[in-house]
Amino acid sequence: MSRTPLLSLLLIAACGGSDSKAVDAPNAVIDSAVSIDAPPGTPDAQVFDAKPTPDAKPSSVKIVTCPASGTVDVVASNFMFDKATYAVAVDGIVKFTVASGAHTMTATAASSDAFDSGTLTSTSDPVCFQFTAAGGFPFHCSIHTSMTATVTVQ
After folding, report:
1. CA atoms within 13 A on the CB side of 17
2. Going by DSSP bridges, is the β-strand pair 72-77/92-98 parallel, antiparallel, or unpaired?
3. Which of 17, 37, 87, 151 could link 137 by a cystine bridge, Cβ 3.0 to 4.6 Å?
4. Which fold has domain 61-153?
């Protein structure tokens, strides 16, 4: 007896039952996606070819909800940040605001510690970053690249 029909049946059975379109795979890189036509009346399904990223580590910087107090403030105004260096403790929070113009707070180094506030103006809500590991985190304004500074986490 051929095993092909049994294997095909098992593969088909394994594909049913979920209408989720998300892949829950930490440290995965999605390098291709294939859309599968579902029978009429059933939710669409997608299959992702997810591969673990070698040497991947969680980011040391994450966006968090801004607390009412206890932050280190970074203010952008007049084509400059208000300081060249900002010191914060491990797990400390940096709050980025704009006093005038349009600016970003964007990580200079491309790594797993990349962070980006997006473009903010004086009427935007602040963006807060939590730094969870010690080190130096240089950043710049992606609109005005001469604007640079560093968050030093101790």
Report:
1. 5
2. parallel
3. 151
4. Immunoglobulin-like (2.60.40)
